[in-house]
Specification:
Length: about 140
């Protein structure tokens, strides 16, 4: 049964832009390993979900819906309000790319994880973060 406009609106208002389940999973896993970070740093371009400022490592945890996972296939799934959703998500994809390029040009390592990647492979995500931090420590990149 299709949802009403009110149900959809209610659901969309409840979507978090920070402290999502997937972000909390990654943060908890890093914290348990003794890795400390800053979260949702507004002074860094793109406001990374996690930042290791001294190491210049920025981590983003992206939900598949909002950030356009498998976009060329998924955008065909939109049956209503295509004129709103398709440009919105395509702009999110474009913005993610702009953020990546700007941070990289400033000497940051940018890591992006899909939500399902964190849920299914948390240890691998943590390993990649630790590897990026270690790389910056060994090469004294600041």
């Amino acid at each position: 049964m299709p949802k009403t406009k009110e149900q959809i609106s209610y659901n969309m208002r409840r979507v978090k832009y920070k402290d999502s389940k997937i972000e909390l999973m990654l943060r908890k896993g890093l914290w348990e390993k003794g890795i400390r970070y800053r979260k949702n740093v507004s002074s860094i371009y793109g406001h990374p979900d996690l930042a290791f400022i001294g190491k210049r490592v920025a981590v983003f945890v992206d939900s598949e819906f909002w950030h356009g996972y498998n976009w060329e296939e998924r955008k065909k799934d939109f049956k209503s309000h295509q004129e709103f959703w398709i440009p919105k998500i395509e702009r999110n994809i474009e913005r993610d790319s702009e953020v990546n390029e700007k941070l990289k040009s400033e000497g940051w390592t940018v890591l992006r994880f899909w939500g399902k990647e964190v849920e299914k492979n948390l240890d691998e995500c943590i390993r990649r973060v630790l590897e990026a931090i270690d790389y910056h420590e060994k090469n004294q990149i600041n």
